[in-house]
Amino acid sequence: MTREDPCQYEPGNIRKRVLYVGSGLQSFESLVKDMAVAPRTERLRSESCPALKTRGHELEFVPVWDTLGATDTLRSAYVNLLLVDLRWCENFENRAAEIRHLLKELDHDEDIEQRYGFHRIVVLVSGPDARRIDDLIIELGSVGVRYVLRQDYHEDRPAWSSDAAFAARVLRMADELTSSRRIGKTAICGAGGGITGIYYEMGVLKCLDDCLTNCGVNDFDMMFGISAGAVVTSLLSVGYTPDELMAGIAGAKGGRVPPLSLSLLRLSHFNHEDMRWRMSSAAKTAARAFWEALRGRGGDTAEKLFLEYTSLVGAPFHSAEFEVIIRRALQMAGSTNDFRKLPVELYVGASDQDARSHVLFGAPGYDHVPISKAVQASLSVNPAFSSVPIEGRYYEDGAITRTSNFVEAINRNATLVVTLDPFVPYVSKLPGVAHRRGVLYNIDQDIRTITFTRFERARNATLRKHPEVSSYTFLPSNTLRRLLSTNPMDHRPYLEIWRGSYLSALQRIDQLCHRLRGDLAEQGMLLDTSLAEVVAEQLRTTSNLCFEDFFPDRQVDIEKRPFMTPSQVEFPRSAQARA
Question: In the prediction, which pLDDT does 573 show?
Answer without folding.
Answer: 38
